[in-house]
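Quarterly update, task 2.4: 5-O-phosphono-beta-D-ribofuranosylamine-bound model.
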Amino acid sequence: MSLISPFPLPPFTPQTPLRLGIMASGSGSNFQAIAEAIKQGELNARIELVIYNNPDAKVAERAKQWGIPDQLFDHRTFSSREALDEAIAQALQQHGVEWVIMAGWMRRVTQRLISAFPERMLNIHPSLLPSFPGMRAVEQALAAGVKITGCSVHYVELAVDSGPIIMQAAVPVLPNDDVATLQARIQQQEHRIFPLAIALAAQTSDMTVPDSI
Ligand code: GRF
């Protein structure tokens, strides 16, 4: 498949509403930002299902407030990663999800789930990939002493935080930053670019031409 360059930037509103499934493990502020963007008409999409893996994840509360179906898949109750991902893939497909959005999903995913949504799984990571993949990306950036970090939205591949990058935003590291202050500024940028990146990925996918043509 050949991907057309993502530039120029907006407008790239999809014609028909994208059917999104959100996967999250924690607070769900990125879920909230996507839901707000849809409400404001900035992203033509519907969130069909929110999947979470921690029983006390705040994202479930947020989903209920938005009237969006939510489903708990507690990873501790599954015999393997594949079994968990199989169940998640089935739930997403049953809800008609076309695009899977990992918005703070703190589990490694297997090929079982990735193959169910080829080139239609996105993740957000709080660094300028390929720098600082994996856990504690903000701590990693502070420890390395970089002066600019940020966030990245990328397609999901098997290796953690790998896959083609769709959009990034840069965030300066200020002299007195600690993890909390830097993370808060990175999250502001995450909330801004995630809806844009989803729309851009969908538009790019519409423009994707099979290599055989
Ligand atoms: C985000 O910072 C994201 O980059 C990381 O997990 C965090 C999730 O935050 N993968 P929230 O649950 O959306 O508030």
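Highlight for this quarter: The helical segments are 29-39, 58-66, 81-94, 111-116, 137-144, 179-206.
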